Amino acid sequence: MTNRKKDRFITAVVANSNGEIFDLEGYAAVGMSGPCFTPLTIKNTVSMPYGGELMFLPDRQPVLYNMEEQCFETILENPYSPGEKLFPVAAFNSPGYVNSYACAFKEDNSAGPLPLFSYGAVGWTEDSFRSAVIAVDAERRQDLRLMKYEKIISGVENLRKKMPTNRLREHIEKCALKYGCPAAKNFFLGRYEAPLPTSRHCNARCLGCISLQKNSSITPPQERIGFTPKPEEIAQVALWHITNVEKSIVSFGQGCEGDPLMAADVIGPAITKIRSETLQGTINMNTNGSRPEVLDKLFDAGLDSVRISMNSAREESYNKYFKPKGYLFAHVEKSIEIAVKRNKFVSINYLNCPGVADMPREADALNKFLSKHPINMIQWRNLNYDPLRYWNIMCKAVKDQKPMGMKKLLKKTKKAFPDLKYGYFNP
């Protein structure tokens, strides 16, 4: 067990039924990685990054480490205030950080699914919260301190005047002001990456889809775009961003839409129009990569880069999360092959949950995948889904193995592929 002289435990934090968060003397915080629990220490945590949020989890009990008894315990009530129910506390960490452990908890039989966030492990030291995370991107693209509300409003008003009838501009405005989308805010701030949501439809039924949940008790946090923008509307938004922002990037495939390959009939002409007026900027697509022949034609039109989402390099695990409709994992691989062959910048949006992604079987599959497909970048992203329920869904696919740990996974992958870029944002 941990040598406290060299690596001190951090204190568990819990919440009462009023949502009041406090530390619990005598207990260390615990991280969960699939079926395994690990006490949190100074060494395996960092000071909680700015912008992270704390959440208490109803209908669940915290799993903590009793430091005196040196054992894990599921705590039903406050040991210092009998009868007071306690609840787990998780951290929704800032962009640029990947969870090394999930919050450790057990759920009641009557518990419903958690909302679509990631639930990182967190604890307390003398003066601050500490999160079990790994920094993968230092860029401050979504730092809330750099998104002043009055400047966003000024940008909104400016573009209302420049594009008064553009429906796409109006939709992005709703994303910025109603849903607080950082990408939409950055568009109105005139910097970084501009979102170009276009597609109303998708050919996957992802467990954690944030814009559409059919026949599910999970509520999506935002509405899917309800119209298909015209190529001219897309081009107007993109050209404003490209011509006004240094090192600009515009991206199809946002959280408020389906998959952009399903709207290639308008995206292709929009890209052609953009490229007829400027060769500046990067035109990117975030996609599931399900239609390689369509993607190839978009490259012909002028698409510069592609980011393809995966939760696994194994078809069995991939299918359990994405639930593809009318395409196969082989089509995803074919899209990557085409993009690499055409010398496009290729990223994979690798959706991670500790205890699944870092299982040896998954790590080995990722290594083989990267050997076969020499992509440019992995964007290590936290999977926004209930970690316990995700494990229950995926456990048969990953088999009975012990997770190696997310830190080891990242180090092992980097050692095998030293030229592979790590990050969180589209470069």
Radius of gyration: 22 Å
Number of E strands: 22
Beta-strand percent range: 15-25%
Please report the distance between the alpha carbons of the first and last residues: 41 Å
* Helical segment count: 11
Overall structural class, as computed from helix and strand content, comes to alpha/beta
Q: Give unreliable regions as ranges.
A: 1-5
Helix content: 25-40%
**Mean pLDDT across all residues, rounded?**
95
Spatial shape: globular
Sheet having the most strands: 10 strands, antiparallel
Q: What would you call the quaternary organization? A: single chain
Q: Short summary of the structure?
A:
The protein is of the alpha/beta class. It contains eleven helices and 22 strands.
Name the features.
ten-stranded antiparallel beta sheet; alpha/beta; disordered N terminus; 427 residues
